[in-house]
Amino acid sequence: MKTAAPPKHSKILILDFGSQYTQVIARRVRELQVYSEVVPFNVSASQIEKLQPNGIILSGGPASVYDKGAPQIDPEIFSLGLPVLGICYGLMQMAHHLGGEVVFTGRREYGAGMLHITNGSKLFDGLGNQLDVWNSHGDEVTLLPKGFVAAGRTESSNFAAVEDRQRHLYGLQFHPEVAHTPRGKEILQNFVYHICRCAMDWTMGSFIEEACHRVRQQVGNEKVVLGLSGGVDSSVVAALLHKAIGDQLTCIFVNNGLLRAREEEVVQRVFGENFHVKLSYVDASARFLTKLHGVIDPERKRKVIGEEFIRVFEDAIGDLAKTGHSSQITGHSFRFLAQGTLYPDVIESISIGGNPSQVIKTHHNVGGLPEKMHFELVEPVRQLFKDEVRQVGLQLGLPKEIVYRQPFPGPGLAVRILGEVTPERLSILREADTIVQSEMEAADWYYKVWQSFAVLLPIQTVGVMGDQRTYENTIALRIVESQDGMTADWVRVPYELLARISSRISNEVKGVNRVVFDVSSKPPSTIEWE
Ligand code: XMP
User: Fold this and answer.
1) Which of 96-110, 128-142, 381-395 is the least confident region?
2) Same domain (yes/no): 355, 470
3) Which of 330, 474, 482, 509 is buried deepest, with most CB atoms within 10 A?
4) Does residue 321 sit within a domain?
5) Which of 405, 452, 491, 528 to mutate to test the pocket of ligand 1 (most atoms within 8 A of CB)?
6) pLDDT tens digits, residue range 395-414?
7) Is the peptide bond prior to 182 cis by the omega test (within 30 degrees of 0)?
8) Domain stops at, among 370, 403, 436
9) Which residues line ligand 1 (CB under 6 A)?
10) By residue range, what is the domain housing residue 427?
11) pTM for the full model?
12) How many domains does the chain have?
């Protein structure tokens, strides 16, 4: 296996003081095609020297520099001769440790402001005299450290932008990384290209190389298992790991009987036939349906499905061990479990005030598996946002139907069948769902919305077909737009499209005589019906 180090490239280190925007800064730098790495705020100056960055960005953070246990930087970092940009709390750190004065004014400034640029700083090259900026801070610099001058002011602060050109130290009280600072990207561009002198030498291709290298270093010759769901995240991880470690990777694809029509075919075709990934296909539909027999309560359904998934996964690994995939080193054949954890799944926060210790909350999308089975985790895309993962997927050659597919819940069609899940109901819902998807695609709407799907309401209403009275089920149509699934609104698709979907479902799907359109937003409703 090749483990040659990827070529050296420009690098920006981001010290994380707990801002909700830290990863957004990393992402903005990546958009400039420069490699960036987020490291904890307490990294030492000597560690930084070893990492050889071209420059450093200090993130914002929720603390006040005077809070008990507030995160503090190693002040030696300012003497390394590297350019540093302090954002918000990062600026306060800079002022505080270099002999300036920071006060907590008691009023937190949030929201839009106007920055007046006062001394032609390199940071604002090409940006004119004033800029719309976004503030969110509590502390304020009241006295500049020696060597610093003001570079811009806002209505409420004379030191909204500061610099020490000699030492290449820069500070901003506002947030250049957020969309509400419309020209913030240009400020970061000036810092990264002109002050840190980074080259544009990092692309999704370099990410893939780098990620492959890291994975090889992490797993050595050991085996890795991945639960492949067919969703974007696990699919991209499968393709990435296959590139990195080939047959050391085994994917387990569990058919829980709650999948969309022909889902298992698509996954087997793409990964088995096209990528030649070692794929273990487990048809556990009967097991899941037996467990779901008589279950009506939505939470209970989810719990039953989650627990059964863990059992099926364990059994599948046991079977692989028996059939010779095993090295039996750790009691089961695989030392590593790969997961498609993305940055938004990783909620990291630094808690201060009452609790001086650093608290990191991590949410994994495969609940329960790792702790019980003593896997070490491989999470090669945990620094990326969804759209970046999609780019990686495309670059690795995954088809559009996988890379741009809509999210599909783990408990599958079970949360789209109100009441008990039965084979008959699944079959009705699959047929209706296939019609929704094909009509959405045909009308060019499928890729424009967050999700579009059918829900089976097993309540019967009266209808008429030919001369016959019917008494059949209702399908609800849910089409929503959303950024992240946290909030959503129903999509105003053309009536003609609704008409086509409705008439096809009631004409073609036996057991349905009525179609309704869900016009609820989230909140107060949720996207799924259960
Ligand atoms: P709700 O229904 O909570 O859904 O508004 C928000 C988004 O999450 C998806 N969803 C799930 N995804 N496992 C998943 O992997 C689940 O149990 C689950 N429940 C909901 C849902 O499809 C929507 O995109």
Assistant:
1) 96-110
2) no
3) 509
4) yes
5) 528
6) 999 999 999 999 999 999 99
7) no
8) 403
9) 407, 409-411, 451, 485, 522, 526-528
10) 417-517
11) 0.83
12) 3
